[in-house]
Amino acid sequence: MDWGIKNRLQRIFKEDGKTVMLAVDHGYFLGPVSRMEEPRKTIEPLITYADSLMITRGVLRNCIEPRFNIPVVLRASGGNSILGKDLSNEGITLSFEDAVRLNASAVALSIYVGTDHEHQTLVNLSKLVDEGQKYGIPVLAVTAVGKELGKRDAHYLSLSSRIAAELGAHIVKTYFCENFQEVVKSCPVPVVIAGGPKLKNELDVLRIAYEAVSQGAKGVDMGRNIWQSRWPVAVISAIRSIVHENASYKKACNMFNDLRK
Ligand code: 5RP
Q1: Of these residues, 173, 185, 218, 261, which one is catalytic?
Q2: From CA 183, how far away is CA 176, in angstroms rounded?
Q3: CATH (domain of 119)
Q4: What's the average model confidence in pLDDT over 84-92?
């Protein structure tokens, strides 16, 4: 790996090799999703608790002050909306020149293994990796977003995560599942987990984070289960303790309950 790629990855993954990424890029297909109607208000109070922000260039430019010294993972795929027929029909929506202008530490795109747009999104990933190599910018591949994909079990998530790594992704973002260690074991690059739609109970989110990290995830790249919570700072702080301080599930729950009060 070239120095630029290594350096940028080390901005995202802290000294312990782990990361708490805050995903706030949902508007690129969901529009003003609940609690992200005014991105600045939601994101700013959480910035100091995150190791990086996964974000679109539009929200970064318009809603985040450049004074914040936070590594940025820029959303680089899209081209459809929740109203369209097929969320998997994505193209590349960002140039590396713009990623450099925005001082990106990585770019992110989604792949849709097992859909009608499997080929297109996997080729998009390969192209992005090739371009990223020219600029020293690593690529994060997001697997398995969307309702049409059906069961997200260890077999499917291992398949899509491994394919992403084989095509050159430097980080894979996927979902927690039963036998998650199988997904991590067969993926030769760091795996982080998304949270998915908001769960009713924050303690369930902490359990997923705890189980994922215990089974080898290098951290989380979570969104809605943090910023759609009534207590976003308490949730992200408790997640940090799991990721960076090896806190037990019980300790993280106690932390969440104390901060929530
Ligand atoms: C959308 C994304 C999101 O960043 C991802 O889904 C993580 O957010 P959440 O924890 O809310 O699922 O990649 O395509």
Answers
A1: 173
A2: 9
A3: 3.20.20.70
A4: 91
